[in-house]
Amino acid sequence: MVRRGDSWSGHERNCAFLNCGQLGTKASSSSLLHASGYDRQFANISAVSGLDFADDGRAVAVTDWDQDGDLDLWLANRTAPRLRLMLNRSEPTASPRSFVAFKLEGNGKTTNRDAIGAVVEVDLEQQTSQDSSRSSQLVKTLRAGEGFLSQNSKWLHFGLGANPRIRGTIVHWPGGVSERFADIEQNQRYFLRQGSGRAVSWTRDVGTKRQVKLVNMPPPPEAPSPPLAAILPGKIPLPELAYWDRDGKHQVLQPGQRPLLLLFWASWCPSCLHEMQQITSQTPRLKEAGLDILALSVDHLHAHGANSDQKVTSTLKKIGFTFESGQADADTLQRLQHLQEALFELHPEFTVPLGCLLDRQRRLLALYRGPVSVDRLLSDLALVDATDDEHRDRAVPFAGRWYTQAISDDELSAFPGRQLVTRYPLEAAGYFERAAGLAVGTGREQHLTDTAFTLLYTLARQQPESEAEPLYERAVAIKPDNFNVYHDWGVLLARQEKWAQAAAKFRKTIELKPDHRSARKYLELVNQEIGKQ
């Protein structure tokens, strides 16, 4: 999931919910939250609050930063900006608002100095009409940590609502002692020291007031991602790539006399058109440098693909593009996508323009996701004749000395095979066969040979009869002493009534394993059929 761009805990935008109060009806299954058996619903006001930035949010800390009687928020993010200060600028309602805040200090003996764990109760008597009043109690606990990676201010802030009268305040200290504090008024801050029994009004000394100026910085518009030009650490053999040429003939990409830029594009893609125009304007330089270009359109594979042939032809004519062109094969795009997923830790979607710089043997040297400049192309052409060490040095963005060896040719050949083995096992087997031939004397040959053989043998047993025989032939070429392959191949030939050929396979099976009962029985039956002819 992470490799395709998902995240365990990413893209977590902030959420804000408004407490709509208790509705007074019995809780139903449609309730968002339930409390005491009654509906208590919360409205999602994330957008209108201005808090749901496209940040990857992590922590929130609550404090009355500007000391105006309401609470402000500090937000911490994994992504930039790492910190945001959100000042509470909500407009007062028709009813005046009020608060009270407390800073606690324990005695340091039965209670820690920070008074962590203390519980504060504020008893209120609120006037609900001219002739009646109601009492309520507000409770808060002083904690060392609030949620994930955050710590609120140690000031306990109580919002009191409209026209309250504070009847009393009780602190339950962590050591088990409770203490009442009197003479507390709204819209004030108090310092409560354990054992004093007296609330001390607290005001900031104007002479020591902090001079902190925070500049409001709206986030800049998101810039488009720059093109990605990735030089590979070695020359990676490409999977089989097929396409339709401009005459409509199905072709398979073959080795050539000159290096090649394989370019995937679309007539509806502005970046593609810009790149094609730049290439066209520099045609003499590119041809003089010895670079061929094959531009394959994906118009016919896209939702915009109606009348794609006409669009592509007219676009190329309008641009004046003189290099080779054609249409991409859907299977080819799948193979390239699998290769990209093997190359990069994050699996990118297949997008155009996509450029592949290939050497004469059609091995991948560099990959360009997005438009590539002609100057960059001409610079990267030096990779065609570079040594393995030189190629690897160009793959990293800084100079240095290596303490590891360059990737060997057999490892580079096996690399695409490992990625293609699930979806394209036959092609993967070809990579492992080639890698085994390059790994002679390295100690890796046997494993690569076994892998290629297993793929071919398994495929042969799964394929229709008309397609299985070439696979058996390749399998025995890899392991000529495996009697199971000859036996299964003989059974296949017997089903096709190719008696003489089947008899030869069964005889080879018995030669390799004299006590093979099935082969002996089949050989007897096959010889009977031969005798009837």
Compile the SSE list and pairings:
Blueprint: E1 17-26, E2 33-35, E3 38-44, H1 46-49, E4 57-63, E5 72-77, E6 83-86, E7 99-105, E8 119-127, E9 133-141, E10 156-159, E11 164-172, E12 178-181, E13 188-193, E14 199-201, E15 228-237, E16 242-245, E17 250-252, E18 260-265, H2 270-281, H3 283-288, E19 292-297, H4 308-319, E20 324-328, H5 330-343, E21 354-358, E22 363-369, H6 374-380, H7 388-394, H8 409-420, H9 425-438, H10 445-462, H11 465-478, H12 483-495, H13 499-512, H14 517-532
Parallel strand pairs: 7-13, 18-19, 19-20
Antiparallel strand pairs: 1-3, 2-3, 4-5, 5-6, 7-10, 8-9, 8-11, 11-12, 13-14, 15-22, 16-17, 16-20, 18-21, 21-22
Count of distinct strands = 22
Mean pLDDT: 87
Counted up, domains total 4
CATH class of the largest domain: Alpha Beta
Estimated helix fraction? 25-40%
Number of helices: 14
* CATH homologous superfamily annotation of the largest domain: Glutaredoxin
Strand content: 25-35%
Shape: elongated
**Secondary-structure class:** alpha+beta
Low-confidence stretches: 27-38
Lateral arrangement of strands in the main beta sheet: 15-22-21-18-19-20-16-17
Sheet having the most strands: 8 strands, mixed
CATH architecture of the largest domain: 3-Layer(aba) Sandwich
Measured on Cα atoms, how large is the radius of gyration? 38 Å
Using the coordinates shown, work out and report the CATH topology of the largest domain.
Answer: Glutaredoxin
N- to C-terminal separation?
Answer: 62 Å
